[in-house]
Design goal:
The protein is α+β, with helices and mostly antiparallel strands. The chain contains 8 helices and 6 strands; from the N terminus they run βββαββααβααααα. The protein is elongated, with a radius of gyration of 33 Å.
Length: about 290
């Protein structure tokens, strides 16, 4: 089955050092484009997260947010003196550029990430918990993309059914439309009371039939409809292939419209283009 590129996943778990929360959001994009916002204590997971996304997804803009709500109850707090000194030095440097700087508030320094830390933390255990939870979030995201992909495939197949019906109907109408056009020419000459050369009439009708021959376009439309169904059924990263097929369907519908010589064939070409445009919009969300 095909997958949508639009989905959302959120997982939360209380661990040994606090509560971890992953939120993954994905929308359509030409390529795979991850955007990561990780808790300060877990920044070194960026490489592993990117690799996990690359292994699990093919396309889409994916926003990954990881929050850590640390549980410091009963744990002594420590000040990272080196980090605090760096922040104070930077603040004093900026203060030197200001005529009347406000005094530095120690509580503001403590509020900066990485200055106030809980004691006895185990980074490796925390990383392992975060990555295990990320795997769950990614699985949930992929399941959501699959569900929406199934719905998109259903909507596209409905329009393919309508297209096939339009093509079948038009194919049956072509002989009738040619006969009606022939009768119009005969009636026109009759109204003019002009002597009609049968050979010339046949030449004109052959020329009309050649200009109005849409058998090739109808065959190509049927072939492309069959191919779209096959791609949808095969699944995988089918978005680019389907987008190409939408272009080909639109090309044939345009040619069909340019050859139209009867209101019924003109309307059929318009109906086909509407259906193709509806499918094209859905295809933009397929991975």
């Amino acid at each position: 089955m095909v997958h949508s590129m639009t989905a959302f996943a959120r997982v939360e778990r209380a661990g040994s050092q606090g509560t971890l929360v992953w939120e993954l959001r994905s929308v359509n994009h030409r390529y795979l484009e991850p955007h990561l916002r990780l808790a300060e204590a877990l920044r070194d997971l960026e490489g592993a997260v990117r690799e996990g996304l690359r292994q699990g997804l093919s396309r889409g803009k994916v926003e990954c947010t990881l929050r850590l709500n640390e549980d410091s109850t009963g744990k002594p707090l420590k000040v990272d003196r080196e980090r605090a000194a760096q922040l104070v030095a930077a603040a004093e440097e900026v203060a030197g550029l200001i005529k009347q700087p406000a005094p530095l508030n120690p509580l503001e320094v403590l509020s900066w990430p990485g200055v106030l830390v809980a004691d006895a933390s185990d980074p490796q255990a925390l990383n392992a918990e975060a990555m295990a939870l990320f795997d769950e979030a990614l699985a949930e995201l992929k399941a959501g993309r699959l569900r929406e992909g199934q719905e998109l495939a259903r909507l596209i197949n409905e329009r393919l059914d309508n297209m096939a019906s339009e093509v079948t109907t038009l194919r049956a109408l072509v002989p009738q439309m040619l006969a009606a056009q022939r009768q119009k020419i005969l009636d026109r000459f009759g109204d003019m009371q002009a002597e009609l050369d049968p050979q010339r009439l046949e030449q004109e009708m052959v020329l009309l039939a050649q200009k109005s021959d849409v058998a090739e376009e109808l065959d190509r439309l049927s072939t492309h409809v069959t191919e779209v169904r096959r791609v949808l059924k095969s699944g995988g990263a089918a978005g680019r292939r389907l987008d190409f097929l939408m272009q080909e369907l639109n090309r044939e519908a345009n040619t069909l419209g340019s050859k139209a010589f009867d209101p019924r064939s003109t309307q059929a070409a318009v109906n086909l283009k509407v259906l193709i445009e509806q499918m094209r919009e859905q295809v933009q969300n397929i991975e």
